């Protein structure tokens, strides 16, 4: 089934209700300054905030929750893991990402590459010895190229937004959970129980996640034999899995390695979310450093 939807300004990435007053400390981990509100003066990830984006957010998730099914994700993974669309380097893909507009993000109106470098540079300052984490920050959103024609020009609901497992019950902590009632998997007894098609502590690598830029970039890294550590790959695949790393849902599916890697996602998420600022990055100045990391952890040309 093909759906045609208007490209609305969805407001997906908004933080839970937590307001810092002027007297509160707004730094963490040794120097990164955490803003108290997004570009539009609202709390991050506040889905109840009154704004012109609120209706778009709800409409986005309605479409997303109806159409992200186990069979749909299985089909998309089979199609995209062929890696037969284009060959290009990581940096070429970073530059290509500037042609992408993520309409799910109300907190960012700068070019995509600047957000990636803002997050990477903030992490680099506070974790200078974790070069794999610097590079992970740079590449974590590259899967958004799925919105471009050469990559299939997928609709926004199949590329951005919070992610969640398919093949088991939809947890109530998932934003706009009510719309899952219209999803075919909701009434399917094979998929609507706590464990569904999985077993306890099976490991998240064995879990089918809703399709989007996270899972696609994870497949790109895996299929091209990136040497990023498992924590880096975990961040790439699960950085939008807020039901897990914010609400603690689905922990019964995690294994020991997942539990260790989750700590890194929770560290990373602060920089990913809050580094969207007006502080401009001199791309040409920092480019040589990131090219050296790309050479270390990725082949010179990747199949996408």
Please give a handful of descriptors for the protein shown.
304 residues; mainly alpha; 10 helices; 4% strand; 38% helix; 6 strands
Please characterize this protein's 3D structure.
The protein has 304 residues and is mainly α. The chain has helices spanning 54-67, 70-80, 90-96, 112-126, 131-139, 213-223, 230-238, 242-245, 256-274, 283-297; strands at 27-28, 32-33, 87-88, 165-166, 208-209, 302-303. A two-stranded antiparallel ribbon has the order 1-2. It has a two-stranded antiparallel ribbon with strand order 3-6. A two-stranded antiparallel sheet has the order 4-5. Helix 5 crosses helix 10 (283-297), helix 6 packs antiparallel against helix 7 and helix 7 packs across helix 9 (256-274).
Strand element count: 6
Q: What multimeric state do the chains show?
A: single chain
Rounded average pLDDT:
84
Count up the helices.
10
Bin the strand percentage.
under 5%
Low-confidence stretches: 1-30, 34-47
Strand order of the largest sheet: 1-2
| Class inferred from helices and paired strands | mainly alpha
**C-alpha Rg (nearest Å):** 18 Å
Distance between the termini: 25 Å
Largest sheet: 2 strands, antiparallel
What is the H/E order? EEHHEHHHEEHHHHHE
- Helicity range: 25-40%
The 3D shape can be described as globular
